[in-house]
Amino acid sequence: MRVMLVEDHRLVRSAISRTLQAPGLQVVAEASSAEEALDLVMEHRPDVMLVDLDLPGMNGIELVRELAPRLPDTQIVMLSGSADRDDVVAAMRAGAVGYLTKDLPPDALVRAVLGVRSGDLPMPRRLAAQLVQRLIKAPATHLGTGGLSPREVDVLRLIADGLTDREAGEALGISPRTVGRHVGSILDKLGARNRADAARRYRDGL
Asked: What pTM was computed for the model?
């Protein structure tokens, strides 16, 4: 997997780069700012980007929001010193597929990045549990149209925030296959081309 790092602290960036010198991973580019990342990313087109939240100038969430629509095949993961739930939600809504904290042990970071390929959620369990609870309890008043059932609204909310079918099923107490059937119904009702299109419509308020 080709990895790009976006981190403004040189020592931290160097430490992360050394950590990712593991079988199956290759760091292909590094950037110290969002602006530098924008200059480099289209040339390297990494499989995974690790993006710091607090960058000088354009911050990490703004960078994710800029890049996610342009690089649908690149999985963007926030790597931050903040474990604030609002930061996690903001990152996922911007288009990140996961959120890792910098106190993660090196071997756990490697496992998390490698797991992106198989659809694992790169996020500490505590943050994932908080995120799921917030998403489930969040009001869905902006989804008053589209003919979606309450369960389909729950599924779309979780899928739009980056959860896999398995993770959404665990959160809702249903099987991944049932989640998949709900997703199929959502696409039909919304006339969406794919999951990404349905997720975009959710974030735009349908």
From this structure: 0.65
Shared domain for 35 and 105, answered yes or no, is yes
Do 195 and 180 form a contact (C-beta atoms < 8 A)? no
Flag whether 56 is in a domain. yes
Q: What's the half-sphere exposure (Cβ side, CA atoms, 13 Å) at 83?
A: 12
Residue 29's DSSP bridge partners are 4
Which residues sit opposite 78 in a β-bridge? 51, 99
Retrieve residue 167's tokens. 């993770």
Contact 169, 178 (CB under 8 A): yes
Task: Tell me: do 154 and 72 sit in the same domain.
Answer: no
The SS3 of residue 78 is: strand
Q: Is the domain of 54 the same as that of 117?
A: yes
pLDDT tens, residue by residue, 178-204: 888 888 888 888 888 888 888 888 877
